[in-house]
Amino acid sequence: MRLSQSLSQTSKTFSSDDPTANAKLLTQAGFVKRESAGVYSFLPFGWRVMRKIIEIIREEMNAVDAQEVLMPALVPIEYWQKTGRDNVEIGFQPSEKYILGWSHEEVVTPMGKQRIKSYRDLPFCAFQIQTKFRNEARAKSGLMRGREFMMKDAYSFHANQADLEKYYARMKQAYFNVFGRCGLESFYVDAPGGEFTKKRSHEFQVLTEAGEDKIFVCEKCKLAWNSELEVRKCEKCGGKLVEKKGAEVGNIFDLSTRFSEAFDVKYLDENGKQQLVVMGCYGIGVSRIMAVVAEVHHDEKGLLWPESIAPFAVHLVSLGKDEAAKKAAEELYEELNKAKIEVLFDERDAAAGAKFADADLIGIPLRVVVSPKTLEAGGVEIKKRNSSEVNTISVKELLKSLQK
Amino acid sequence: MRLSQSLSQTSKTFSSDDPTANAKLLTQAGFVKRESAGVYSFLPFGWRVMRKIIEIIREEMNAVDAQEVLMPALVPIEYWQKTGRDNVEIGFQPSEKYILGWSHEEVVTPMGKQRIKSYRDLPFCAFQIQTKFRNEARAKSGLMRGREFMMKDAYSFHANQADLEKYYARMKQAYFNVFGRCGLESFYVDAPGGEFTKKRSHEFQVLTEAGEDKIFVCEKCKLAWNSELEVRKCEKCGGKLVEKKGAEVGNIFDLSTRFSEAFDVKYLDENGKQQLVVMGCYGIGVSRIMAVVAEVHHDEKGLLWPESIAPFAVHLVSLGKDEAAKKAAEELYEELNKAKIEVLFDERDAAAGAKFADADLIGIPLRVVVSPKTLEAGGVEIKKRNSSEVNTISVKELLKSLQK
Fold first, then answer.
1. Has residue B107 been placed in a domain?
2. Chain A residues near residue B9 by CB distance under 8 angstroms
3. CATH code: domain of residue B327
């Protein structure tokens, strides 16, 4: 993509009372545009990052045999009445008939019921990647708490508690894989079940000062508890806990039979007896991952994207008005495109300082400069975003290193 | 995917007052589940088809240099007030602050404004693939007219009318490409501009008795007019028109300066003079394509998917309780998966008649049967969904033909 033609543009100004780094940097670097409190548009850079996060999640969900579906946002009011969640305050109600889905147990449970007759039909898991709506009284922290946000939600159906627990453990590992692949180290945190279950739930929290949650961490056991549980000592070793701030990127719930009871979802067991289905549910905040990565991976100059979810692999900069250098940069741009290496090409007529500042702000992992000086030195100048080291290498070497 | 484990299951019953083939067949074949009038869930088969349609659209939009973004569904009321479209009846209003996006001119116009200073910043085009909400008084015709549906909408920005018209023509061709690749022959139809423009708009209509529109077709010129325009004769050759029923799958609008005026979107021209930007907008009903394909491509037994958007390439059926045949079918399933050929595997304990009826209902282009009889004949039995011819070929030949 040519930067001069991109809908994503950098900006020096940022007029907002939102103090978080993700709101400021993602806006200034042209990844998102705030439309109203907690409501964002994703510009081309931001949408590229989102699609990469989505693909990682999709791969990890497929790996635990979850089946992808898409449920509607307009969830009929009768569905919510079955579970008594029609009065939960965060539900937007666009008409008498619907509440916008802020979670989809009420849709997926009857969907699962349709195909369950006997124990042979269990277990299975459905997931979707979808926009959720929550009427948050105070939408804040940039993309971390939105009124509209993208979520991956999965729902599993089991014959018994033991089978749920087996799958819950698989999903837990899949979650660590997702966050790890997105460049985030996460803690597995005990938390209350909220509107979902009377049991404890489990959150995946990333430590950051921008986080909205207070968690108590046992550094020895690498376990943690959400402050809403008020646990005073490590429940495993009895040791003391350290208070930290965390941003929740995922949560998983043992729903037990709460929703199968509400919708009367039963199966015939091996002995021909009717039994209630046991369910679990599993959420990941897709847009929130993007925000938390921005919080964790930035410096005073701008963003530092992990390679796995960077909007582009290469930030190509041409410098100077020299025709030979311009031509060499254009040729390299074509070659990178041909090799299917994602490249942002800054071919604007602008000063080197401004171009480098934009490259630092946008945060693509590798900066490649073509100028009369680099051509004289036999190639291009490369610099990793997370290092101050600058090297000159030949175009051939560059292409080889990127095609690994 | 193993049919026995799929969330998509076939069903003989269909209790609805919706008479359309798409509602009946897509439901019975396990592609969708109706949640309320005009509100559907996409089950795994249906969501696979949708994702393929989305990829085709994405490729064609990239080919006309459109940039992918994602705008919110919660569109601030102030945006709509700027254009006077806050009172359009189809807008769902979930709170005082927002109207759910039923089209996104009001969001994309200020987004474009952000990056436009001079003529050098034009033209560009943004597109998104997103859920739209319209409070249709009478949602009907299965997935053809929904309250919630998936749409591709694109918006282009130009320095002048001539440049818009050039791009409009490129987009027109891209639209024919999209529909053609999805197995649909479409007519380019003159229509009124509705809530978008005082000029005529252009619809892409597919001829089908299930269509909601009346169009007048000149069979000589291959042109057509929506009946709402009440054109009596072909505007090109003056010849007589034939009345047909059509289903609209796309529409494109010359917005002129309607939205750039409302949001004061101007650029500096070559002479340093301020000029209003000229805009176009371009919609495709993604879920409607799926419905129209079901209307156009089915017979009395079920669906007939074009290869390009079929949920799977192969419907593999194992027959009989013979262990050798079961093992051969399992091995073929593994081989197809390894070769990355998408396969639905019907390994259920069911009668041949029931399995064949399900294969016809689901409508995957190629049925492959493994049974003691086919093994004896030296391989597998193949049958195309759109033909009655049955042949026996070796597994090697099958794999070769699929890996073309």
1. yes
2. 114-115
3. 3.40.50.800
